[in-house]
Design a protein that fits this description.
Elements: H1 3-18, H2 63-73, H3 77-86, H4 90-94, E1 102-103, E2 109-113, H5 118-123, H6 130-141, E3 151-154, H7 168-185, E4 189-193, H8 195-202, H9 208-211, E5 216-218, E6 225-230, H10 233-238, H11 243-263
Parallel strand pairs: 2-3, 2-4, 4-6
Antiparallel strand pairs: 1-3, 5-6
Helix pairs in contact: 2-3, 2-7
The structure holds uracil.
């Protein structure tokens, strides 16, 4: 290489370094003295990528979705009862009778329990066994009778075998029916008997001992309904000392009803 050319190239390199170029960008060295490469053939236009269309998946009708649809269609208590009776459930296969409700639907006060037991299953009415008899006595102690002043239903309309606690799946299946039941009855107040209805309806994580003793708000399409969780009468039969708390809840219920009656 001639000395002049060499000096010129070194000077150009130094200039690059001065400008901050400190690494080669191409992986392969580029021979700038080689004959110019023939023009490359024009790159072919990229092939159009066919649009991938996913066939619409059929909506999966879960049992709870089916229940929601059926519940929404029921425009009377009779229609709701029939819709529940028509809905497939393993509980329906093992139970004897559907336990829908009892008492006075337009009384303004609705009680919600957990699930029918053996006596309720046999007779097809809620709270007719020993815990129901205690419940009637408790309500009578604040001047309320089933035949005049309140209406009763349960989270589950069928007895779980062996009176076991309802599973989350069973509650999810029947909750749309219960919500429709409440919407049709339009109670002014709701008494929630035990942890299962309290947690399911109020979507609460706390247990009944934390939830009880104060009014909560049950959001409904027609407007929120005040709901008072209290202890389940079956629990009171096992733990009589807890009747003190249940009594305090009933006094709160009575005062609220009296306060609203006085306010007109
Ligand atoms: N326990 C309930 O929760 N409901 C009934 O109907 C009877 C017992």
């Amino acid at each position: 290489m001639q000395a002049g050319l060499r000096e010129e190239l070194l000077a150009a390199l130094r200039l690059q370094i001065d400008w901050g170029v400190d690494e080669a960008l191409d992986a392969a060295p580029l021979d700038r003295f080689a004959a110019p490469a023939p023009p490359r053939e024009q790159a072919a236009a990229p092939l159009p990528i066919p649009a991938v269309t996913t066939p619409a998946l059929p909506a999966i009708a879960t049992p709870a979705a089916i229940a929601t649809g059926r519940a929404a269609e029921a425009d009377s208590l009779e229609a709701l009862r029939a819709a529940i009776a028509d809905t497939d459930s393993p509980l329906r296969d093992t139970a004897t009778n559907l336990v829908f409700a009892d008492g006075v639907a337009d009384s303004g006060l609705m009680l919600v329990g957990e699930a029918p037991g053996a006596d309720e299953d046999r007779l097809g009415r809620p709270f007719v066994g020993v815990s129901g008899q205690l419940l009637d006595r408790m309500m009578a102690s604040i001047g309320l009778e089933r035949s005049k002043n309140f209406y009763l239903t349960n989270i589950l309309p069928w007895r779980p075998p062996g009176n076991r606690t309802p599973t989350d799946g069973e509650i999810a299946l029947f909750l749309p029916f219960l919500l429709r039941h409440i919407a049709l009855v339009r109670p002014r107040h709701i008494l929630l008997l035990g942890g299962t209805p309290a947690k399911s309806l109020l979507r609460a994580k706390d247990g009944i001992t934390r939830l009880r003793g104060r009014w909560h708000s049950l959001p409904m399409e027609q407007g929120a309904i005040p709901a008072l969780p209290t202890l389940h009468p079956a629990y009171l039969l096992r733990s009589p000392a807890a009747k003190r708390e249940a009594w305090a809840d009933l006094v709160l219920l009575r005062r609220t009803l009296d306060g609203e009656a006085a306010a007109g």
